[in-house]
Every structure is written in structure tokens, then in C-alpha cells.
Specification:
The complex is a heterodimer of chains A (203) and B (101). Chain A is α/β, with parallel strands linked by helices and 203 residues long. Helices cover 31% and strands 20% of the residues of chain A. Classes of the chains: A alpha/beta (203), B alpha+beta (101).
Chain lengths: 203, 101
């Protein structure tokens, strides 16, 4: 939640990876919004029903709701987790008349990607290529200038090098492409020590 | 930071209602007093080449849609094969003309 780099990037990254691997396996985890409070995040009941178990309640917004997605577009989700925003994006960019949209999710937690891929197999969406890749936001496994839209949901705050992550998003976007991010920002108050620990910053 | 990287038209919209779910993240920590959810949008600047490319892409897709409408209409009212049948010659983004076309 802080804009400052963590003192030990590798340790911080490992804590984040472990925290989200636990969440992917339905273990107790911090920073999960209870089901009853998720309506406030921005997903409609119909969207929640559509994504099903891929919504783990770890987002803080609904980036596909303000990304103005159109059929045939290509969308990249940074830190896709179990794929909730990839599936919602895929539904919006599904091509018509033979054109295909593309929804690509990147995440550094293989347990999350296992869940996302399993759910994608269940959904079998037509008219769109849905893909998940293992990778880190600071070095995206994505071709340059290949995406129309980059979305992200409460993940960039977890990066110790936020500028590198945003620079990679810039590289992945084609000229004229859009960045649409839901994330937490500081209210301008200094964080107390209890919220500055690696465990809290991994939240 | 976004403008330093090269993004333009940067906009940040704070979500006041986020307090209601941030308070559940680490109960008792008061995290909702320190952070707020936001919707951030930005754009990678267009280049002349990308503008021209997008214009041609739009025209090509428009022409394809027009062709598709008339081809379907034609198939409906004649004994011509339906455009969706495999092997039928069809131009367009995902339907490269078959070799016999």
C-alpha cells in the first residue's frame, strides 16, 4: 500500500506469492472482502454469477466496468489471479462476424493460474482467445505494442517497483491503447508501523 | 509517475465507498483511514502510423460487415451456399480468402 520500495524486494515478492497461493487454495488470508461486502466493489450480481468461483474477493474495483471494452479488442490483465477480470473482459471483447477478441492474464502465482485455467476450461467462451501466462509485472511475458487495453485490479500496489510495472504496461500497449487500473492509493497520511510490515504490504 | 513514463490523459477517480470493504481486509488495523480505492485511467499516445492503421482497420471491418450482410441476404433468397459454410470464399479479418478464390 506504500509507494516506497520495500527494503528486500525478493523477500517481499515471496511473501506476496505465498499469501496469494494460500488464497488460491481457499486458506484464510488477509485482504479478502467478505461476500456480502463485494457488491460495493463494483461487480453486478449477474457478473458475480458469471465468474463464479474465480472471484476470490481480493480486488478493490471492477476495471472492466470503466475500460469501455469493444468486441475484437485485446485485453491484458496484470496480476489476473484466478481470472475474474479476464473472464469479464473476455465476455466484452468476444468477436462477432468471425473476428476474435483476446483476453490475456499474467500472474506470478502458479496456484492462481491453475484455478484460472480450470475455470476457463469450464466456461469455454466462443469468439475470444483466453490465455493465462506465468510472469511478473516488472518483466511481462507479453509482446510489445500488442494490446489494446491493459487492466489491473489491486495488484500494482503490491509491486515494490511500481514504475517498472507501469513501464511494462506502457510497452505492452499499442499506440492509442488504454490503461484502466483499480487500485488503492494513499489518503496522504503516513502509514503506521503495523501497516508497514512486509505481511501488511503484501495485502 | 504515469506521465513520466509517457502516458497521457491520466485521470484518477477516488471511490469513497471503498471504506466499506477496505475495513474488512485487516480488521482493527484502521487501513481504511490510510488508503482509498481509486479508478485510474490513462492512454498511450497515438502515433501518425497507428492513427492511419486504425482508420484503415475501421474501414476494412466496416466493408466486411457490409459484405457479410449482403452475402447472408443473398444466401437467404437464392440457392447460393450460406456464407458460414466451410469452404465458402469470404474476405475479412478472420476469413482469409480460400485458395480457389
Amino acid at each position: 500500500m506504500s509507494a516506497d520500495a520495500a527494503p528486500d524486494d525478493a523477500a517481499h515478492k515471496e511473501i506476496v506469492r505465498q499469501a496469494y497461493a494460500s488464497t488460491a487454495m481457499n486458506a484464510a488470508s488477509c485482504c479478502v472482502t467478505p461476500a456480502l461486502a463485494r457488491m460495493k466493489i463494483g461487480y453486478t450480481p449477474e457478473e458475480q454469477h458469471f465468474v463464479g468461483s474465480s472471484d476470490l474477493g481480493v480486488g478493490c474495483g471492477a476495471p472492466t466496468s470503466f475500460a469501455d471494452l469493444s468486441p475484437g479488442e485485446s485485453v491484458l490483465d496484470l496480476g489476473c489471479g484466478a481470472g475474474v477480470d479476464v473472464f469479464l473482459a473476455a465476455r466484452k471483447v468476444r468477436g462477432t462476424n468471425g473476428r476474435r477478441g483476446r483476453a490475456l492474464g499474467v500472474d506470478m502465482t502458479s496456484e492462481m493460474l491453475d484455478r484460472a485455467r480450470a475455470r476457463a476450461r469450464e466456461m469455454a467462451l466462443d469468439g475470444v482467445d483466453v490465455e493465462f501466462r506465468l510472469g511478473e509485472l516488472e518483466s511481462l511475458p507479453v509482446e510489445s505494442s500488442s494490446m489494446d487495453v491493459v487492466v489491473s485490479n489491486c495488484v500494482i500496489n503490491l509491486c515494490s517497483d511500481k514504475k517498472a510495472a507501469l513501464r511494462e504496461a506502457f510497452r505492452a500497449l499499442r499506440p492509442g491503447g488504454r490503461l484502466c487500473v483499480a487500485d488503492v492509493v494513499s489518503r496522504g497520511k503516513e502509514l503506521p508501523p503495523a501497516l508497514k510490515t512486509n505481511e501488511a504490504l503484501a495485502c | 509517475m504515469l506521465e513520466d513514463i509517457g502516458f497521457v490523459r491520466v485521470a484518477i477517480k477516488l471511490k469513497a465507498e471503498s471504506r466499506e470493504y477496505i475495513q474488512h481486509w485487516m480488521p482493527g488495523s484502521g487501513a481504511e483511514e490510510y488508503v482509498v480505492a481509486a479508478e485510474v485511467t490513462a492512454m498511450k499516445p497515438s502515433t501518425l502510423a497507428s492513427t492511419v492503421y486504425n482508420a484503415f482497420k475501421f474501414i476494412r471491418e466496416l466493408a466486411y460487415d457490409a459484405w457479410l450482410v449482403q452475402a447472408r441476404h443473398h444466401a437467404l433468397h437464392t440457392d447460393a451456399p450460406c456464407v458460414e459454410e466451410p469452404g465458402v470464399c469470404a474476405p475479412g479479418p478472420a476469413r482469409a480468402p480460400a485458395s480457389q478464390c
